[in-house]
Amino acid sequence: xxxxxxxxxxxxxxxxxxxxxxxxxxxxxxxxxxxxxxxxxxxxxxxxxxxxxxxxxxxxxxxxxxxxxxxxxx
Length: 74
Prior knowledge:
Blueprint: H1 2-6, E1 11-14, H2 20-30, E2 37-40, E3 49-53, E4 65-69
Parallel strand pairs: 1-2
Antiparallel strand pairs: 3-4
């Protein structure tokens, strides 16, 4: 993960419960502002799910999220 983050990419976390804001602020404070953190809460992610994250709205307080589940016939 270090090489991913060292390339300037953000750490993106999804949470099922409503803890995104406090977790994101805590991680950003721990990194002393050197880490860009995106925490999206109230999203349940399962196996074979993909997430499309849109551009932030309302000054960055809201982010549109689209969940996709891929199902293949065998």
